[in-house]
Amino acid sequence: MKYKRILLKLSGEALMGENQYGIDAARLDQYVQDIQKVQETGVEIAIVIGGGNIFRGVDAEKSGIDRVQGDYMGMLATVINAMALQSALEKAGLYTRLMSGIKIEEVCEPFIKRRAVRHLEKGRIVIFGAGIGNPYFTTDSTASLRAIEIEADVVLKGTRVDGVYTADPEKDPTATKFSNISFQEAYEKGLKVMDMTAFTLCQENKLPIVVFDMNKKGNLESIVSGAEVGTLIN
Q: Which of 192, 202, 196 is nearest to 234 (CA)?
């Protein structure tokens, strides 16, 4: 396997599947199958999942909700998704731990780096919920920070598109895909890979990012085994 320990970043919106909101059971099941195949190879897996299918903190201000309050609401949305993913993984027979950036002791452990690493070493899938516990930080930033803290080999950003393009491929049919690009080049071209905080964290800590289509079955396993899937940023 190319990577021994990975941080998988999933978007909350992707969990909607064909629905307008909430969690699509078929999509969740596909994710679990893909994660299980990778876990069976001995790769250590940590996961960060967004909450956009339930609530987006950055959109809260449009409703007259205070930004900080909205961000905390968004953190709670990520916990709901994390709990759903945890339940589905455990139903498939996998061992998991859910760790939270804010204290919700009835449903998840507080994040402690050494404890998270120990869970991974024991073969448990660790899911990080509630962001980093502070407003104004996205789940992309959470993924980058947690990946650095647990010394992951790579951040795998699962999206609806199969990599990084010169423009949005869903809007511009002439957009071309990068198979490999440097952090500097991605920055200079203004490519929207992650928010700048998350992107800079990865760049400064020499942590590669792979952007790929998580909705295509088998892609996750292919990347971990060394296949050129999606776009590698390093």
A: 202
pLDDT digits (tens, 9 = 90+) for 115-169: 999 999 999 999 999 999 999 999 999 999 999 999 999 999 998 889 999 988 8
Instruction: Kindly state the tokens that stand for 211.
Output: 């952007």
Pairing of strands 164-165, 177-178: antiparallel
Q: How far is CA 155 from the centre of its chain?
A: 8
Burial of 213 (0-12, 13-18, 19+ CB in 10 A): middle
* Spatial contact of 41 and 184, defined as CB atoms under 8 Å apart: no
> If residue 221 lies in a helix (H) or strand (E), which one and from where to where?
helix 219-224
**Domains located in the chain, CATH noted:** 7-233 (3.40.1160.10)
The conformation of residue 99, written as its DSSP 8-state character, comes to E
